[in-house]
Amino acid sequence: MTTKISFQNVSKSFELTSQNAFVALQNLNLDIEDGEFITVVGPSGCGKSTAMNIAAGLTAPSSGQVLVDDVTVRGPGPERGVIFQQYALFPWLTVRENVEFGLKIAGLPKEERRRIADHFIALVGLTDFSDSLPKTLSGGMKQRCAIARAYAVNPKILLMDEPFGALDALTRVQLQDQLLTMWSKERRTVMFITHDVDEAVYLASRVVVMAARPGRLYKIIPVDLPFPRTEEVRLSPEFAELRNQVWRAVYHPASH
Ligand SMILES: Nc1ncnc2c1ncn2[C@@H]1O[C@H](COP(=O)(O)OP(=O)(O)OP(=O)(O)O)[C@@H](O)[C@H]1O
């Protein structure tokens, strides 16, 4: 197995006053393997988004470094697709135009852009809405569009910060399944932040649990559940046991 993303002693402090700094992330060491799906959970303020933003190249670490394919991250790059909780679609572009956007920037010819966009729009189940504007879509549909757009440019890494956080429970479960289906076909490396312990266990091959004040890695819990993950897996005693284990690590870190 090869390491795709490597957090090496990554710390981040924010200056509050000239005398006072807040440590958002302390000495994070974490290797994510090529093609792995990891989820990151932890109490509010434990530095999950900070860690992801550093990997995305949107925030610089105060010390340490993140390597992607053995190269230090110094800014955003096309091999890393980022998806946030807020859909961040261009409101004046249709679903297809949104999905084609990155391909256009990359200079792909029109027919190829269209073929790739249509493929990913179909994968997320939005074919009938290809010509719709974002404002006419539900929250779940907007997020599907954002996922198709991120996938279309073929990033080897997907960094997802609570992408399903704003969605209702049913849409959320549907998008989890769609994401896993796409992941199993096109093995990207995924780092996925969530507050939802069930979601964390359902999606991941490893759950990374962080703790707060200062933000740090607390525990890594391997998820030895079979893929594809199905309703049967979700209802199994093994799933329940893992969920309890993650829950205890997140909410009662000192008690075990
Ligand atoms: N620009 C900033 N200036 C000062 N403090 C910041 C800044 N960005 C983040 N922080 C602080 O760093 C800590 C970690 O923030 P971060 O957003 O990474 O946490 P999180 O685990 O993603 O939280 P949540 O689950 O609530 O989204 C928080 O206490 C936050 O207030």
From TrEMBL:
InterPro entries named among the record's database cross-references = AAA+_ATPase, ABC_transporter-like_ATP-bd, ABC_transporter_ATP-bind, P-loop_NTPase
Gene3D superfamilies recorded: P-loop containing nucleotide triphosphate hydrolases (3.40.50.300)
Keywords per UniProt: ATP-binding, Nucleotide-binding, Plasmid, Transport
Query: Which part of the chain is the ABC transporter domain?
Result: 5-237
Judging by the UniProt lineage, the source's domain of life is Bacteria
PROSITE patterns according to UniProt: ABC_TRANSPORTER_2
A GO MF annotation of the entry reads: ATP hydrolysis activity
| Pfam families the UniProt entry points to | ABC_tran
Task: Provide the family line.
Answer: Belongs to the ABC transporter superfamily.
Write the protein's name: ABC transporter ATP-binding protein
